[in-house]
Design goal:
The protein is α/β, with parallel strands linked by helices and about 150 residues long. The protein contains 5 helices and 5 strands, in the order E-H-E-H-E-H-E-H-E-H. The chain has a single domain, classed as 3-Layer(aba) Sandwich (Alpha/beta knot).
Length: about 150
Amino acid sequence: MRLVVAAVGRGRDDPAQRIFDDYRKRLPWPLELREVRAGGGGDAGREREAAALLKGLPAGTHVVALDGGGKALTSMEFATRLAAIRDNGTAVVAFVIGGADGHGAPVLARANMVLSLGPMTWPHLLVRAMLAEQLWRAASILSGHPYHRG
């Protein structure tokens, strides 16, 4: 299974990007980061971002849109869902992080799952870092590693 994080904006030398990169190195699955430019705001901007985020995802990709209106899962539930996706033979799982105005309709329509990291609003670079940590936590849960104590 290969993972993709498709996100609006650039990480560059941000401390949150370094956290993302640290967890990314630990993962047992390859993780590709695709950064796209912000669309310019409003409905038209969200539509441009949606097109850019979805561009190039192979057919059969399991798309998870990160959105405040999505379903919040425990770490164990997230690990269980990730294992089911993996065991179903899915080759690519893409986690899509929208811009400041949220996701355009095409992303939400294409998503197999809409996931929330909680009811608070988070900076997009922190969302990347928190997602990478949860992916590492899921991998450790699935392998029986003692990292997760919840």
